[in-house]
Design a protein that fits this description.
The chain has 19 helices and 5 strands. It is α+β, with helices and mostly antiparallel strands and 463 residues long. It has a 5-stranded mixed sheet with strand order 2-3-1-4-5, sandwiched between helices. Strand 4, helix 19 and strand 5 form a beta-alpha-beta unit. The chain starts with a helix and ends with a strand. InterPro entries: Diguanylate_Cyclase, GGDEF_dom, Nucleotide_cyclase, Rev_trsase/Diguanyl_cyclase, TPR-like_helical_dom_sf. Keywords: Coiled coil. It holds the Pfam family GGDEF.
Length: 463
Amino acid sequence: MDRAGKYLLKAQRMFPEDQDWEELRLGLTSLLGIYYDMRGDEQNAIDYYLKAVTIAEELGDADRECVVLNNLAFAFQRHRCYEVALEFYQKAYWLQKNAGINPVRSILLENLAEVSLFLRQYEEAKEYILEFEENEKDPLQRVVMGDKNWCCYYGAVGEREKALVYVDRLLRNQDVINENKMTAFESYHMLCRSMMELREADYAGRFLEAMEEVSVGGGLDQVQTLEEMRIQYSLLFEPPEKHSEAYCVFYKKNQQFRAKIDETIAAAMKTRIQLEQLMQQVEDMQSEQEILEREVNRDELTGAYNRRFLETLIREHTDGAAEESFAFIVMDVDCFKEYNDFYGHLKGDEALREIAACMMEGARERIYASRYGGDEFVCVCIGLTEKEIRTYIEGVRARLHARAIPHEKSLCSGEVTLSAGYAAGIVKTQIEVRQLLQLADHELYKSKNSGRNTFTGKRVDIL
């Protein structure tokens, strides 16, 4: 269980917020609900079950929504919150009935019958039992579970003879009931209660033994239910002189039960701490990875991508890749030598950082702004139209103009400006990419020669 929790947490941390992986997220949240349910952490279990229901609703996945609602209802049923359990069972029932879904219908009908009997809603329980027999396709399950349902029903309404018709058949088919020990416990619990109501000591005792058999390794709710049924059995069927002994045993068991609760709560708290520590470790690793990525792929001065990253990006998109729309934008600071000579290199560094910021602010997905060297910047654009490229360049120039960085020695303006050139085309090999970069550089010099503080470019066919 500890290992399962760690894997589930790792899986949870892998989901990026900006991607639509709701199908996978549904599976994970459902598993987390089951995990916390088995750990006795009901609060987290309910939270994750409800999240799973919401995701299933958004996906329109009625089948899986029914399964999660059934798990959620069963968690309440085990803790004897029958009204709440019934509400969730009924929601799942009507959802699958309206959608025409069959796989979970038999389970829901059986659970609905049980909870309705606990709530003494006998007519409703009868309807669910009849529908169960119509829906269940497995002949053996239909007979055995049907016998269990009718036995509980007739026991609840006080029809002794009819109830006893099914008892021996059920005891002969315990292997079928025991296939799922968690639901088997609830079934034997109902049968034991029915026999107690009919004052059938032998049958009640045998179902009590069956409860004990399937509860091995069960949760605290099963332990508590079993002990309560034992004391009820003693009070109903054993002589008065045995009652005090039964109460003493019950008291000792209850003390053990309370100790087990404390142990479970402590274990849940410890698990939560371990998971939080693991989460912190994952966050630390991510931070370290981000730092390493920044050191390796980012320009130290400006924070833009560096030339090394640019070369790697080109290789990734050309080595054996299909033809792809590529573009280079080459930008150069106008009269930067004059700026440095007049304002000093520290101011020059500040200006480069401001320019890089203007480029990165507008660099949406598939635009990679990098410092190529000195005062030259190169943007790689993948899959963009020529209109989108021009819009991006205009945005960079507008943001720089808004900053109004003074440049008294500029030959084209009283503030720091950029000249730019771009070339776009369909490329496949690295040779073609290099040619495209040279063409973008040529367009930059056209902008320089036409008076600076402007940009030119074109789309070309390389192949």
